[in-house]
Amino acid sequence: MSDLIAPPPPAPPAPMNGATASSKGSKRVELIGGPPAGAAAIEARDACAWFGDHLVLEGVDLHMRAGEVTALIGPSGCGKSTFLRLLNRMHELIPGAALDGKILLDGEDIYEVGRRAQQVRMRVGMVFQKPNPFPAMSIRENVLSGLKLARIKCHDKDGLVEQSLQRASLWKEVRDRLDRPGGALSGGQQQRLCIARSLAVQPNVLLMDEPCSALDPTSTGRVEETIAELRGDVTVVIVTHNMQQAQRVSDHCAFFLAEENQPGGVVEKGPTKQMFTNPADARTLNYVQGRFG
Fold this sequence. Notes:
- The chain is of the alpha/beta class.
- The chain has helices at residues 80-86, 117-123, 139-150, 157-167, 171-174, 187-200, 217-230, 243-249, 272-277, 282-288, and strands at 42-51, 54-64, 69-73, 97-105, 108-109, 124-127, 205-209, 235-239, 252-257, 265-271.
- Strands 6-7-8-3-9-10 form a six-stranded mixed sheet, sandwiched between helices.
């Protein structure tokens, strides 16, 4: 009997619109003039922040590891969002704001004399509490808007749009209406569009300031899926008041607290499991168990 030769496996289908596949492990769409590829560690050393003469944050030392998710938890008014804005130089945009200490991105001081803030924000993206897509722009234009602002070139814009929307868990919902206004999407979709817009410039770090606070449970779940998908590729720092969410999405936590008439600061930091089951400070345990805040 002659030997049977198995036929070769069928070729995979070509990506839509000439796009490069965007799942983990596949080739990333190449940008020209963008930030260096890959997740980056970001570290605060003795970080302090003022609004006018009011010290709101003091002495924060926190290392956020490359490719991991760090959750910032604590009551309102303890400096979490202010700290987040220190990490990509948005704090300095507030009139009367001042800061001290160092913020290091892969060991380099982002406030070093001569370093442009725009270069920092290209590497350290941010998603805000309230979705803020450009309402007059199409979904596609929203995703690509950061490239234009940062003067980054891409020879495969269709591929980049698909890749970014895939990573934000939005592609399947909008792929047939990319030319429709971004402002016509639901609130949860708008927030994921903002995530896609941030991811399009391929940042090393993504900051998220309570990204799910205004979303329904389904949309919240999809944002959390996006965070899980980004782990390893992007360093994520998220402010959240949802303790269950912090446990679900983060590798490490930092507990911020401001005592009465005192500036905010970090009480305790560590692996998420330890912070929620066996913290070193009684105040941390009381907070994560809902006894205050």
